[in-house]
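Schema walk-through. Below, the input block comes first and the output block second. Nothing else is stored per chain. Lengths vary across the set, and this one has 216 residues.
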Amino acid sequence: MPIITVAQQKGGAGKTTLVAHLAIALAQRGLTAATVDIDPQASLSHWYAAREEALGEDATGLTHRQISGWRTQREVEELANEYDVVIVDSAPHAEMETKNAIRSASLVVVPVQPSPMDLWATKPTLELAAGEKVTPMLVLNRVPPRANLADLIERKLKALKVKVARSQLGNRVGLAAAMMDGRTISETQRRSVGAAEVKKLAAEIYKAAGGQKKLR
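--- output ---
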């Protein structure tokens, strides 16, 4: 089953928020989902702990693992044999665990905020994916409304000859606010524009990763 590694060597790009929202969005559409945290900061694991506390250990809707060291690739691939989709939150730097997670991935998702700094910082991540011969997909994240700069950044990204997701995530407070309680915007604001954006993006990424199961 697909392994989706979310990677970005620039910190603060919204990597962990994207992992959590993708996992829950796909679980809500009928897939069995597992998340893997290999980032030493363990932000995703903190989110999952808050989720367990809020909902109960048996009601989180997904499986979570925190992994480090040489066994990363093997454990991620073992999870892929058990679940419909595995989504990995990688470390922000090119550490061994990140390289292993990218090596085993069906798709590398690279979140990019619409700023020149994020655009420049994206290139090392793309080079890392190319080195492991894994297809990357760029996702514009935290896009402000009516942003001319976002349009310019999108054109620059396409000029890199890399796949850019058609779906984007707006700069919405609800995404981060939901994370505080171990939830996602598709649970706290189910009918919001933000929830609709996440649902659309999750389906696009799942398909790009080679997902075959029909989503509810």
